[in-house]
Amino acid sequence: MKAGAVVEEGFIFEEETQLTVLKTSLFFTGDGFTVYDPKGTLVFRVDSYEPDARDKGELILMDASGRCLLTVRRKRPSLHQRWEGFLGEGIDGKKPIFSVKRSSIIGRSGVTVEMYNNPGEDFQIEGSFSHRCCTIFNAAKESVAEIRRKVDASTHVMLGKDVFTLCIKPGFDGAFAMGLVLVLDQISDDYEDDGLQVDPAANDLSP
């Protein structure tokens, strides 16, 4: 497998790539995502319109054709809101390949991503996902992906939070990055229920 691949090497970009992420909902029964490359071609999608999808705490990332790439599932019980990622569809008989958890229940330390197959190659996510302003760092503290508010290229107007940019640095697995976005979206929702953010100290609304 190509270096840097976590979910699938076909989603590792040779150049820095800005994906556009659109968060959608249908009749308020669930959340979904569609992700497009700079040419407007569909890259990923997430459909979680089943009424019990959020109750199960499980989301599936698919490619444009509907092939299941990654399943993320909330681990219960979990004091620190831990989520785990599994290759393909479902978790039966599989071992997780990574876990995501809040570094502290209340604090500025962000979110930690632990890699089960590559100990020591963990990632840290800092910033505010609820404000669409956060960065994924590797173990060497290098930025490998960023989430930013999207600005309309023609009008220079900042778009709503349901449309944002996922910037993937060269050599980083875009499918893995999108899997982390799914977890951040869930953690962010839970924090907002408690009146908190992924990083409670982050209140920068700039793009």
UniProtKB/TrEMBL annotation:
It comes from the Eukaryota. It holds the Pfam family LOR. InterPro entries: LOR (IPR007612), LOR_sf (IPR038595), Tubby-like_C (IPR025659). SUPFAM superfamilies: Tubby C-terminal domain-like. Belongs to the LOR family. This is Protein LURP-one-related 12. The lineage of its organism: Eukaryota, Viridiplantae, Streptophyta, Embryophyta, Tracheophyta.
